[in-house]
Design a protein that fits this description.
mainly alpha; Rna Polymerase Sigma Factor, Chain: A; 22 helices; RNA_pol_sigma_r2; RNA_pol_sigma70_r2
């Protein structure tokens, strides 16, 4: 039985364990390798995009002052890379190639809008004079340095997050836009995470971009005095990005480490930016403590390993120490733990226990009760039921779960039937348990988790 899914009901950290309750020349003029195997070159394109897309879009947004245009030209550069890299070989500076190509596409857009447009003049001036006159047919310029400094706190990704979390946007729009622009999640993934229709997510993103453009929001990290008002939205976005990385809502992989570790990187950056904010430290602690279990969460074939079956010797003890230190800083602020800090305290209970059986479940129940008061949600109640089952047995927990069923507050989520199925199995009601686990499998979008649920259902007498 696992520790719980978190308060948002949006693919939060730990939910996977809950399912069981228990030679070409590049465009910059640098010598690339010889013409590569097309499949390998395509893999390079995909890897670069997966790792660097947020930085690329953020840099282009700052460069153009237009988020929608930045995303469009970045996608055009990606499409061109998918054609030219398999043919000519990957460039020596893949990110520089994509940025230079996207910049040129942006200049084309501004030229079409108006040959005398001031923004076009400004952008064109940043290119070599001869290349600017030659237009898009010329190869992109050599790019010896990236348009960001990874050692600076105010990097483009974090600035883009603050832009996407501007107060002119609704909370739902902030999260959806940032997940799309920064995390690169598809609309379908965001919709599944928030249990809303895909058209709703797409409409939120479109409206958010138009609102930011109309409000003239500058693409830069806001001054210190403006950050507190936008901090909550940024934390929420980081939380959901990490949750999607920790337990993917769809696809063939249970964990998406690239996404999770990017969220941790941003959380560390934010903690350096706002060292006195306890919830920033709380979120960082939650992410570190959860990510510490990644090495043991999947088996050799990629299948999930439930918390009770994990080899705790594989847990990253350095990450646990970092997480506990961050939790200590959150508590030392003297303002009490908020939602993220409370979840981190729950994760600390698991990190400190030698086994599931020896976990302090009474403390976990109390922490979930506190979390339910500060940030009430049906997922918190479901997780509390899981902890109650471990502390006091499945019968009391099933009553709590049935109350959630009666109120229909988690309709469409696989978490509720998966937990209910496990509780029914423990109570000796295999037919009902099998039906619930099979329902959970139908609702689950992640192939790895779905296979676990089906195996559990098939194993019932």
């Amino acid at each position: 039985m696992a520790e719980g899914a978190g308060p948002g009901g949006a693919g939060e950290a730990g939910t996977a364990e809950d399912a069981g309750v228990a030679g070409g020349t590049d465009a910059a003029g640098e010598a690339g390798g010889p013409a590569a195997d097309p499949g390998a070159a395509r893999g390079v394109v995909e890897a670069v995009w997966r790792i660097e897309s947020a930085r690329i879009v953020g840099a282009l947004a700052r460069y153009t002052g237009d988020l929608e245009l930045a995303e469009d030209v970045a996608q055009e550069a990606l499409a061109e890379a998918l054609v030219s890299w398999p043919r000519d070989g990957a460039p020596a500076s893949p990110v520089g190639w994509l940025l230079a190509t996207a910049r040129r596409r942006a200049i084309d857009v501004f030229r079409r809008r108006s040959a005398l447009d001031a923004r076009y003049t400004l952008l064109a001036g940043r290119l070599a004079e001869g290349e600017a006159a030659a237009g898009a047919a010329a190869p992109p310029e050599r790019t010896d340095d990236l348009p960001w400094d990874p050692d600076r706190v105010d990097d483009d990704v974090l600035a883009l997050m603050f832009v996407a979390c501007h107060p002119v946007l609704s909370p739902e729009a902030r999260v959806a836009l940032t997940l799309r622009a920064v995390a690169g999640l598809a609309s379908e993934q965001i919709a599944r995470a928030f249990l809303v229709p895909v058209p709703t997510v797409q409409a939120r993103i479109t409206r958010a971009k138009k609102t930011i453009a109309a409000a003239g929001v500058p693409f830069e990290l806001p001054p210190a005095r403006e950050r507190p008002a936008r901090l909550g939205g940024v934390l929420s976005v980081l939380y959901v990005i990490f949750s999607e990385g920790s337990t993917a809502t769809s696809g063939a992989d249970l964990v998406r480490p690239d996404l999770a570790y990017e969220a941790i990187r941003l959380a560390r950056t934010l903690a350096a930016l706002q060292p006195g904010e306890p919830e920033v430290c709380g979120l960082l602690a939650l992410c570190e403590l959860t990510a510490a279990r990644f090495p043991a969460r999947t088996g050799p074939g990629g299948d999930p390993v439930l918390l009770e079956d994990q080899d705790r010797r594989q847990w990253d003890r350095t990450a646990i120490r970092r997480g506990l230190a961050a939790l200590g800083r959150a508590a030392a602020a003297g303002r009490g733990l908020g939602p993220y800090g409370l979840q981190a305290a729950i994760a600390a209970c698991h990190a400190s226990a030698p086994s599931v059986r020896e976990t302090d479940w009474e403390r976990v129940v109390l922490l979930y009760e506190a979390l339910g008061r500060v940030a009430p949600s049906p997922v918190v109640e479901l997780n509390r039921a899981v902890a109650v089952a471990m502390a006091h047995g499945p019968r009391q927990a099933l009553e709590m779960v049935d109350d959630l069923v009666a109120t229909d507050r988690l309709s469409g989520s696989y978490l509720l039937p998966s937990v209910r199925g496990e509780l029914l199995a423990r109570l000796g009601r295999p037919a009902e348990a099998r039906a619930e686990l099979e329902l959970a499998a139908r609702l689950c979008g992640n192939a790895r988790e779905r296979s676990v649920l089906l195996r559990k259902a098939a194993a019932l007498p």
